[in-house]
Amino acid sequence: MEARWGQTWVDQGVFVPADNGLKERRYVLDMFPYPSGDLHMGHAEAYAMGDVVARHWRHAGYDVMHPIGWDSFGLPAENAAIRNNQHPAAWTYKNIETQAHSFQRYAVSSDWTRRLQTSDPEYYRWTQWLFLELFKNGLAYRKNSPVNWCPKDQTVLANEQVINGRCERCGTEVTKKSLNQWYFKITDFADRLLDDMDELEGHWPERVLAMQRNWIGRSRGAHVRFGIEATPTQRAHDVPVFTTRPDTLYGATFMVVAVDAPLAAELVTEEARADFEAYRESVKALSDIERQATDREKTGVYLGRTAINPLSGETIPVWASDYVLADYGTGAIMAVPAHDQRDLDFARAMDLPVRVVLQTEDEDPSVSGVAVVGDGVLVNSGPLNGLSKAQAVPQAIGVVGDKGLGQATTNYRLRDWLVSRQRFWGAPIPIIHCADCGEVAVPDDQLPVRLPDDLKGEQLAPKGKSPLAAASEWVNVACPQCSGPATRDTDTMDTFVDSSWYYLRFASPRSTEHAFEPEATKNWLPVDQYVGGVEHAILHLLYSRFITKVMHSLGHLTFKEPFKELLNQGQVLNQGKAMSKSLGNGVNLGEQLDKFGVDAIRLTMIFASPPEDDVDWADVSPGASQKFLARAWRLAGDVTSAPGVDVTTGDRALRSVTHRTLHDSLNLLDSGKFNVVIAKSMELVNATRKSIDSSVGGADPAVREAAEAVALLLSLVAPYTAEDMWARLGHEPFVANVPWPAVDETLLVQESVTAVVQIKGKVRAKLEVPADISEEELRRMALENEQVKRSVGDAEIIKVIVRAPKLVSLVTK
Ligand code: ANZ
Ligand code: ZN
Fold first, then answer.
1. Which uninterrupted H or E stretch holds 65?
2. pTM of the model
3. Most buried of the four, 581, 601, 638, 785, by CB within 10 Å?
């Protein structure tokens, strides 16, 4: 069947949308794959899920776009190229072909005519356009900044690529390095990214929204300036701190500056400098997460300086520590040990004073070691005394403001997006550096800035700058503005830039005029259903949302959110654990497909659990799926009526099962309970088989109706079996385009019958029950019936005989 149908679908463009406006359009998108090797079990699950949605919507009468492409720039290709003395394109496009072949076999109902690859010049030409749109509108800029640096891979790492202070890829300890880097100003959009999430509520998984909120990390508080006193040899400073608790100002008994903030080095006195520098060196390799871990022993050095608490006027010491981060808030804090646990831990470690300013029932924190964080009444706080926390916050901000020492402010955890990479296999940054004109955009008619195709192997090895820097013919160009000698930017873009807009490209993938054509974009976007793994909950989705908002604000898009609905499929595990080489519990997709067939594997994936849940391959049975499919397929051979026969004369009981299955399945599909649809389909197969083997027989039109419904339902997950059944049932291809039959409401009403309950042979109660009630259900109804309970009284029930749907007989003693 795979051989018979697979190529036909592609050749005849069965899954290419008509795109003529006659049907309402729907856009369903699976997160596109990275071409590392062949498809694996995880892909098999994700793409089976997305395909249920696409196929369901086609049956429901929509014009469905379900495109496919590859996220094909990135490091693994480059590393393979260095190993194999090749150009990265060789590895990349070979893997893409392998995956494309597997995709076709896997029968994902994709529109192959829209296929794209982010490493194609036709695509990255527009990634470069996108970069320039941001650049021209002040949203892409360069700054010199310390970056995470992997000495082995010789590359900059994003914070997320640093795991416990080590490089995510090679495990080498990460250090800091100062480089001039390109950033996208995502922080300008922090409020919009947060506020527009209201629109996604109920449509995206709650945990994804929570992760995004947390990542953006909006916190409202105040900037308050503390005066650092001059010493005989050092000048005075005004140092702002960021605090979310200005109500606790009177409890600030010391200040802490981030040890790696330039301010710390400036403040430190000559006597303290040696200790300070040794300490700073010792914390260099730590990640932000480690630095802030609450269970870590607090460390720090006294800078030898004192500050004045702006409200109490008290003189307090100034320390440096690693638990304060240099790039959050202002990089300096007022420490309130009585009411902040980390400050308390630090105060206790360094023997600094603790002053309670919020009276509660709690124990004294300097005794208990536990900071008082609840609400209470302000004490030891001059004019704030007697107020509650909620009253004191605005009051304190007012007092500080009146004195000209600070104001309310909002702080974000979100940082600007570092987009430049010193690597080869990415979209070149389309900027030319000129000594006279500065940063000059490559003119539109000179895009794309193509990657040179004559670099390979060792020439691509990282040397602390981009390998492109060594390609002098490529680097040296005339300045587009003054024609003087100039050089190309040699960095390439983070691959997250490529994937931040690909969903826009699919509506007009071959456009040479636009990144995305206005008309096609209006017709197809935003994406109605996005499907992908929760590992992309933060970065990819945040960047996509950001780029959509930028394009919206520049007038290129009419919508602000790219993905209306989001489904995160679970993982495929084996024996309760993620599959991995080191555990040796990997399952090879190709082998499974060879052994059980595509349809059985797809069915197994969908049937195993609700889409969001993990699937444990040790708990499923592809062999049973295969048997079920064969059983379903055989129904077609037992239908002896002709296609188009009048089904209304068919057996009512079977018709009722068919129509209830179709009806329930629609609701289940709309609410994403794909696994239950399979369970219902199995029941329908059983009912149909029973009818064929009973007096109803295969000639009854109801049997044809049921078998056709089975084919339709199976086409959601088992396209080969379904298409073949459809042909055996005497129809023209293709079952994928057949509309759902209208459900006959009159067949949904369950007929009811009267059941009698006898006790010791005497009728004691009558129950109205559905004609198809199960034995268990009837038994439960009888035993819970009040009349029955009364009649049984204190007697002991020793036997219950159930004959569904008409009789329950109790024997009592
Ligand atoms: C005084 C205070 C008293 C604070 C109190 C908290 C409780 P979020 O909510 O995460 O924004 N802080 C400010 N800048 C910091 C930095 N660069 N590194 C580490 N900590 C920093 O946290 C804001 C609070 O975290 C601020 O409010 C500050 O401590 C600390 F009872 O100020 B608070
Ligand atoms: Zn110039």
1. strand 63-65
2. 0.85
3. 601
Burial class of residue 23 (count of CB atoms within 10 Å of its CB; 0-12, 13-18, 19+) = middle
- Domain 622-747: CATH superfamily is Isoleucyl-tRNA Synthetase; Domain 1 (1.10.730.10)
Residues within a 6 A CB radius of ligand 1: 219, 242-245, 248, 258, 324-325, 328-329, 331, 333-334, 336, 339-340, 411
Identify which of 219, 224, 225, 242 to mutate to test ligand 1's pocket (most ligand atoms within 8 A of the CB).
242
143 is in an annotated binding site: no
Answer yes or no: are the C-beta atoms of 801 and 787 closer than 8 Å: no
User: In the CATH scheme, what architecture does the domain 1-117+501-578 have?
Assistant: 3-Layer(aba) Sandwich (3.40)
Please name the residues in contact with 198: beta carbons below 8 A apart, sequence gap of 6 or more: none
CATH topology of domain 218-412: Isoleucyl-tRNA Synthetase; domain 2 (3.90.740)
Residue nearest to atom 10 of ligand 1 (CA): 219
Question: What are the residue ranges spanned by the domains of the chain?
Answer: 1-117+501-578, 126-191+417-495, 218-412, 622-747, 752-812
The SS3 of residue 766 is: strand
Instruction: Tell me what pLDDT residue 160 has.
Output: 65
Q: Which ligand is nearest to the CA of 486?
A: 2
Give residue-wise pLDDT tens across range 557-580.
Answer: 999 999 999 999 999 999 888 887
Give the chain's largest Cα–Cα span.
109
ipTM: 0.97
Fold that domain 752-812 belongs to in CATH? Ubiquitin-like (UB roll) (3.10.20)
**CA-based nearest residue to 249, from 360, 405, 364:** 405
pLDDT of residue 156: 75
Pocket test for ligand 1, best of 328, 372, 373 (most atoms within 8 A of CB): 328
Burial classification of residue 35, based on how many CB atoms lie within 10 Å of its CB (0-12 exposed, 13-18 middle, 19 or more buried): buried
CATH architecture of 126-191+417-495: 3-Layer(aba) Sandwich (3.40)
Ligand 2 (ion): residues with CB under 5 Å are 434, 436-437, 479, 481-482, 484
pLDDT at residue 393 greater than cutoff 70: yes
Q: How far is the CA of 805 from the centre of ligand 1 (A)?
A: 68
Ligand whose nearest atom lies closest to the CA of 325? 1
pLDDT tens profile 698-753: 999 999 999 999 999 999 999 999 999 999 999 999 999 999 999 998 898 777 78
Phi, psi of 244, rounded to the nearest 5 degrees = -90, -5
Q: Which of 651, 660, 702, 694 is nearest to 680 (CA)?
A: 660
- 480, 489 in Cβ contact below 8 A? no
* 75 and 88 Cβ atoms separated by less than 8 Å: no
- Give CA–CA dist 507/583, Å, rounded: 42
